[in-house]
Amino acid sequence: MSVAELHPWKEPPATIVFVGGGPRTVGLLERFAASAPELLEGRDVEIHVVDPYPVGGGRIWRREQSRLLWMNSMTSDVTIFTDESVECDGPIVAGPDLATWVAGEGAVILEKAGLEQPGPMDFPPRLVQAEYLAWVWERVVRDLPATVTTHRERAVGLTTDQRVILESGREIAADAVILALGYLDRLPTASESAWAAQAADAGLTYIPPGYTADVDLDGLWPKSPVIVRGFGQAFIDLMVLLTEGRGGWYDECDGLLTYHPSGDEPVLYVGSRRGVPYHAKLGYTVAGTKPVPTRYLTAEALGEGLLDFDRDVAPLIEKELAYAHYKQLFTAHPERVRGSWDQFARALDNWTPVGRGADREFETAVAAAVPDSADRFVRHEVDRPLAGRSFEDREGFERFMIRLIEGDLVRRADPAYSADLAVFNALLSIYSVLSRAITEGQLSDEDRVRKVETEWHGFFSFVASGPPPRRLEELLALHRAGIVRFAGPELDVAIDNDRFVAKSPDIAGEIVARAFVEARLPRPDVLATTDPLLRGLLDSGALAADELFAADGTSLGGGQLKADSRSRAIRADGSTHEALFLLGPSVSGSAGSSGFSRPHFNGPGFRQNDAVARDLLTLLAPTVRKEERHAS
């Protein structure tokens, strides 16, 4: 008897194409494998993954990058696998988080790669994560009920009949396509193009925003001053590549780090809007602390309809952060407060924040209950530590900066200030609520871009997404060695007499250099992407993206690709593509795009991956069986 007679419903293999082979694709395929026994019903599947970079790590987490670059998450805070905390319809399939893998199967792999084994509280090199992701990918492929083919090239087109066109000219006919492209390169803005042209005319070196590991730094000459605008992770990577990456080294004596220059380092004058580096990552954990549902910033409080961020959202965020801070202070450190938590919580419930200040009644309650100002939480003071200060000379400013950074290092290492950890967790919960409000269209374009994606995300990154503490210790050592200088807040840069000139309104004097680096990632704008596949789909109307405008008609640039609540692509005419899925940071409503999920954290990326995987499986299941299920 033939196979067809034994299985009269047998259909030809289904074909899925993933464009992008980074961690998002790996996580989605893990969920696909988990639910396949339940939903696929025996249909053969062929999976193609298209990416010019190695599958698993993709571009950002590839093996071919400097081993000096670190993650800004601890080893114990990263996982690709679901656990009992994840609320999803698919089965939970246990797998090692990064810390468990490093101590187990990964130990031999890291040794072969010449990498040291990090501890659970260490901030590992990105190459450690690259090895972990490569291992996870191999495990996922073994578990998939499918044949898997990888293509180390770009996808450059997608036809209306769902054929993916590769750079080589090959075409793959697909039943479903998933675009998981990660962070996209984009065309320079008009401002960046003008800077580049002016700099070229004057014989200067200008480096626009970009992913630091991919930037050509050869134009930054040894011992020459370089103006750097940006004090976040991009600056930290730049600092590392221009110091240790050029042959310098550190040693430590009696707890003090000393940098020994190679002589090939430039002198970095670094400033930004705040003028200070991002807060160091917290160097401790507290048992039982994790993000909890928001108390004030809730879906019920926001209601339905369009919101005004400053009026309707910002005051609730202010209360949410204060609540997290003071509840932890009262609970974990009662010796540093006066009165009861219930009494203080009533004052907090009755507080109505206005603008950047607090009403007098709540200020009085804080002063009475929290004697030490170091235990108080005032968001605008946290956000702008240099606000209201000015310095008559750069030496005085740099002395102040050293004390500020040293104080931050001490505090972020001390669990006595665990209220900072509570604020960190509250920030994660707040982000989840804001993402939902954006997805449901409750914020105007202007509020979304200027208030959430710029101001709020900037504050979140400053507080919650800073560098490992060791990097700030290195920053201080480089300052002592004369390699890093501090340029100040609200740093303004111009070209004057064929040179870059930088000034801060709060610091006397100016800085002159022949090189200028914008140390930050470019703002996402899918309408400006250089990716040929997306450009073609947007031009044809097969994909839709927001073009954002302020209330006065000023263009805010392009937004994200549009997808529905099930991550299916929305066309320019508003219709939904049933077999084209969009995931990642350039997609509206895509969860878990800001980083890896933490173990036992019910990460939103897991939930979205699971839902998309199950939709894919249902889409591909045998037609006869789908009809039978529908009839029943």
Automatic annotation (TrEMBL):
It comes from the Bacteria. Pfam families: NAD_binding_9. Residues 17-183 form the FAD-dependent urate hydroxylase HpyO/Asp monooxygenase CreE-like FAD/NAD(P)-binding domain. PANTHER family: BLR0577 PROTEIN. This is FAD-NAD(P)-binding protein. The lineage of its organism: Bacteria, Bacillati, Actinomycetota, Actinomycetes, Propionibacteriales.
